[in-house]
């Protein structure tokens, strides 16, 4: 067993920050959250476009 087994309720971002000696990450505000969610959606759309092109080429 490792010491990490005792910290399963601590988010990975906080554990990594503590390990690296960085301050605890601040939560997103509403504007940052919307921008992050849009960034994720844009990435998902790009992946879907790539997969669709591959499917068309394979057909």
Describe the structure.
By secondary structure, this protein is mainly alpha-helical. It contains two helices and no strands. The longest helix has 29 residues. The chain is elongated, with a radius of gyration of 19 Å. The mean pLDDT is 89.
Brief overview:
The protein has 59 residues and is mainly α. The chain is 64% helix and 0% strand.
Strand content: under 5%
- Indicate the radius of gyration in whole angstroms: 19 Å
Query: Biggest sheet: strands, sense, closure?
Result: none
In terms of per-residue confidence, which ranges show pLDDT below 50 for 5 or more consecutive residues? none
Separation of termini?
A: 50 Å
| Count of helix runs | 2
Give the topology string: H per helix, E per strand: HH
Sheet/helix structural class:
mainly alpha
Overall mean pLDDT stands at 89
Q: Helix coverage percent of residues?
A: 55-70%
The dominant shape is: elongated
Tell me how many strands there are: 0
Helix and strand topology:
Layout: H1 12-20, H2 30-58
Task: List its traits.
single chain; 59 residues; mainly alpha; 64% helix; elongated
């Amino acid at each position: 067993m490792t010491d990490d087994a005792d910290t399963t309720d601590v988010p990975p971002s906080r554990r990594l920050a503590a390990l690296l000696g960085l301050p605890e990450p601040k939560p997103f505000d509403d504007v940052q959250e919307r921008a992050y969610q849009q960034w994720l959606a844009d990435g998902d759309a790009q992946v879907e476009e790539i997969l669709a092109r591959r499917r068309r080429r394979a057909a």
